[in-house]
Amino acid sequence: MKIAVVGTGYVGLVTGTCFAEVGIDVVCVDVNTTKIENLRKGIMPIYEPGLEEMVQRNYEKKRLDFSTDLASAIKDCDVAFIAVGTPPGEDGSADLKYVIEVARQIGRTMNDYGVVVTKSTVPVGTAAKVRAAVKEELQKRGVDIPFDVASNPEFLKEGAAIEDFLKPDRIVIGIDSGRAEEIMRKLYKPFLLNGHPIIFMDIPSAEMTKYAANAMLATKISFMNDVANLCEIMGADVNMVRKGIGSDNRIGPKFIYPGVGYGGSCFPKDVKALIKTAQENGYKMRVLQAVEEVNESQKEVLFNKINTYFKGHLKGKTIALWGLSFKPKTDDMREAPSLVLIRQLLEQGVTVKAYDPVAMPEARHSLNDTITYSKDPYDTLIDADGLCLVTEWPEFRLPNFEVVSRLLKNKVIFDGRNIYDATELRLLGFDYFGIGIQ
């Protein structure tokens, strides 16, 4: 089979590379000439464990190619994936202009039957707009080329995207024709050999499934953060509460870890988009509105703890930050809680020294040189008045606390992810502040 993947961002690049890994001929297309040239040289636009090696291997074996020529990529391909960005508008709705433009380009260039698949996260009804755009361009050409449209939402976790694609929990595909189902089933056959389920459904349901999944996970996070805040007030330990409810198989242990709020490219954008979609159709998503409100306020929790500890006298202080990306194993800074914390600290005249294993170059795009970027975790601690753990990278889990104690001016740790043992640190003489514990 031959496929084209339009868009070489996070979703498009991972999708195209993983299909190539199982022997499918793939062309990844992008309008960004520099990005395409870099990919041909093995230079990645994103950080994702294992991706660079897989891209280079499949490019060398000529199963994976990169191009700016959509017409050439579409020629003779069986499936064309649309994986371009859908940035949120000011009102929270998903901006579909890039998706529709790609659909129009496909309509202008296709010369034989194919399946046009929306891989980007898009609102319900987008596939119908894609179909209309392709059909309109075909009519302008005066040709009657058959095609099908499908929805194939992605469920990739940043930091584990390769594993998620190659060994998926499930594959969701929205189709409305038997021919499209046959092609999509054949395309995904290599990923089904170990019993991973493929779920075919109508297209609107597939589009809704992606939003509903992310909204549910975001809800679990905000719920647990809300509970954590109440635990602090009532003298309960949220870590114990988490274990107690996580052992209930109706709830499960995943996504109930309290922290400083969710970020990234998916949860914030998708929650907003689903709320907006409901509004446009005369319905109010009351639970999701609360989820969003809790998450925004949760991003201020660490600052409030720091401000309280120093009794509001923050000007002239220096705070060390461990972790900048919104989660470990990625350099993604979109909607990262660290950005909210840093902005609040800077507004109060605080000097911020930060270290992140991979996200510091990306962080400079948002922060420029308003903070100090350190060479290693311990470098951030020199002359710092306190340590703030924001992102739970593995290398932060077991530091040398004797060194930490010696370098800090004040032996205080603000743990935004509850990765340290409060009792142990307090016995070592630290003032320790976690989330949802006293």
What does this entry look like structurally?
With 438 residues, the chain is of the alpha/beta class. It is built from 17 helices and 14 strands. Helix 1 packs across helix 3 (51-60) and helix 9 packs across helix 11 (267-280). The chain folds into 3 domains: 2-201, NAD(P)-binding Rossmann-like Domain (Rossmann fold, 3-Layer(aba) Sandwich); 211-297, NAD(P)-binding Rossmann-like Domain (Rossmann fold), CATH 3.40.50.720; 299-433, NAD(P)-binding Rossmann-like Domain (Rossmann fold, 3-Layer(aba) Sandwich), CATH 3.40.50.720.
Name the overall outline.
Answer: elongated
User: Oligomeric state of the chains?
Assistant: single chain
Strand content: 5-15%
Overall structural class, as computed from helix and strand content, comes to: alpha/beta
| Rg (CA only) | 24 Å
Helix segment tally: 17
CATH C-level class of the largest domain: Alpha Beta
